[in-house]
Structure formats: structure tokens, C-alpha cells
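Annex B.
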Amino acid sequence: MLETVPPGPRRVDSLPQPYLLFLGDIVEPAYAKTAFGLRDWAGERCVGEFACPGATVSTGLRNLTPAQAHAAGARAMVIGVANPGGQIPAAWQPALLQALEAGLDLIGGMHARLEAIAPLRAAAARLGRRLIDVRRPPPALAVASGRRRSGMRLLTVGTDCALGKKYTALALARELRGLGVDADFRATGQTGILIAGEGIAVDAVVADFAAGAAELLAPDAAPDHWDVIEGQGSLFHPAYAGVSLALLHGSQPDVIVLCHEAGRETVLGHPDYPLPNIEEAIELNLRLGRRTNPRIRCAGVSLNTARLDPARAERLLAEESARLGCPVADPMRGGEPFRRLVQACLA
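DUF1611 domain-containing protein: predicted C-alpha cells.
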């Protein structure tokens, strides 16, 4: 049985769950961001993980076969990988077929469509299973108008891909709501959509309509309402800069938060391309963002310090805040630095 997400918002409870997270055969943790995102932000919907031989990445969840996961309550296996180009290698097909045979539906967020793979399509039809592709934009998107919209908008931007833009947006939206602010997280990628239950995978939109999709994601709102928009890629990325610029222009952010990973020096998957420094990245985002919102400002920096011990992370956050003259925080560590960042967003 073939199924795709229909146009418009779709609540996450309409998807079969709980989930078994599939990690493919990957060896690079950054390419498992869908699995990690679901573990960290929708852990109550995840019963375990499953991988192909040779995989070295783990979410730390129980290692279950599809049959064991089904017995534990799982109703779908989610492809937890976001690899370059969003491909589904032929080497994964036996594992995907195993999940279908075990009674699980398949949920994919790749550019490659589950329904386009003949063996999966045949098995799903024979077994009455669903193939669900969430990386599908709504039809009939409009070209961006550039019209200024009411409400407040915050966009997370970055020096690279896969370094914390989604986590930062989710953490900011949660903290704002905790302060009594009317705030919504707006998902722009497959992982965010699976977490929030709705959104548009902007990198799957035809280029001419990507800024229009960003406008649709954050429409007119009450003056005190905040849309916290998940960023994608980086203006400095040799492959994905176009998506980043479309989001920047279409979302018309009043505030940006620049995301960076401590210690990362080159573009992920492109070792010949050095990353920009934080100041350069902030300046370019503000300069290009002024095209559709002349009042755009940077509230501060979200610094991913996951690879550092707590003491070193605390020192680095303080040093970078003093050097840059703005709040610098790791949202996953929280604390006073993160509270200062949130207040700077609202200032």
C-alpha cells in the first residue's frame, strides 16, 4: 500500500508509531541526524534501533530486529539517515524488506522515494504495508511575494550543515513557550517534520518556489507571535547555499541565531572547503537578509560543544561571548548562557 503525506500540515499522530530507527550502514554520526533528532526530541515514540552489518553509528537505544521491535509495539521503521543526496542504497533493501515482512510500515525522509523502489513497492502491496515519504512539498506552491508579514520570526542559520540548527530552533521555541511567549517551531526538513508533525522539506522544493515555501511556513500572525524557523545548510556551503538563501529571504527573519560546532574546521563532506569564521557568517546572513527585512539582527550564537567536557565547554562559551560581544550558548547544556541568548532574541 503506497502512501504519501497529503498537502498541508499533517499531525504526527497520523503516522504509524512507535518507531524503530533504521541506521543503514553509516559510519559518520552526522549523517544519522534524523535518528538522533527523533531520539532526543521524540524519544517516547522510539522503541529501538536497527542497522546493517558494518554500521558503526548508534543512538544508544536498544538494538532490535524488526520482528523484536514489532513485538515491543513498534508500528513503523523510520529511515534515520540523512546522507548526501538523500539516496537509499541497494544494500539497504534486505533490511527494509525485513521490516515490511515483520509487520512494520516504512517511513522515509530521503530524496529517493520508497515507492520508487520496485521490490519495496511489491512487498508493501503483497503484505498490506504502507510506504510513507514525508519529504514531499505541497503542490502548487507560489513564487515568493516578498511582502512583509505581521508577527515575529526567528531563523537559525549556520556555518555548515548538520551542526545544530534544528536542535537550536526546537530549544528556543520550547524556552519561549516556557516564558509564556506564543511561539511555534516551524520545520523545514524531514526530521523536524517527524518531530513536529508538520512542515515543508524546503530542500525538496523546486528552486524557484523555495522562498515561497518559506513564506507559507511562517504566514501573517499576531504581532507578539514568534515563529522559530529551522534553518537548513549554510550560505557558505558549496552544495546547499541555495536552500539557505531561499529560507533567509522567504522567512524574512527579525532575528537570526548563528549556529556553529566547536572544533569543526571544514565543510562536512567537503574537506577542501574551510568553514567561515563566526563573524563572517553573521555578517553575510545579515547583509543578504536585509533584502527582505531591513530590520534583521543577530541575537547571538548557538555553539555546539557536544565533543567537549563540561568544564571546557563552559570556558569556551564564556570566552566566545566576551570575544564576540553577544550571548553564546549551547542550548543542549542550557543554563545562564542559554537564558541570556533567549532574552537577546526577545530584546
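The chain has two domains: 2-133, 152-346. The two ends are 50 Å apart (CA to CA). Further annotation is deferred to the next reporting cycle.
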